[in-house]
């Protein structure tokens, strides 16, 4: 009996503590909407171009990394990327075939192929967007993007598998 009472008491205390943690916490007054922080797939790529390990990517490191990426993506070595080559590159280096930048970001002349100049120009545009203080370097802090909590939750729901269908 005593063991049973101790077990019930521990369970009730645990449940009360779990309920306290489960209560939503309101942001401080005037703090605005809650946000999460994330890094875009192309931001991870740019961070990977940091060849000297100083925790930031220079414009020169980005150029070298971009040329290396184009060489890896151009599997048939014809000097341009077809849509299949871009998709395979995106899956490997950005983590998903639909990760941005995508086909329409790179292929500015809409000829269904991406030249080295188009590829380089798009990654240079992305580097410039991340370089918030315009010092020619992209730091890890500059790569972090605030994302509204609702958007973050929507993105997480989209990544979940569909529930099984009832028959």
Automatic annotation (TrEMBL):
Signal peptide: 1-22
Top-level taxon: Bacteria
Transmembrane segments: none
The keyword Signal is assigned to this record: yes
Entry keywords, A to Z: Signal
Ranges where the EF-hand domain occurs: 118-153
InterPro entries xref list: EF-hand-dom_pair, EF_Hand_1_Ca_BS, EF_hand_dom
Annotated stretches, region: Disordered: 141-167
Entry-linked Gene3D superfamilies: EF-hand
Protein name: EF-hand domain-containing protein
Organism encoding this protein: Sphingoaurantiacus capsulatus
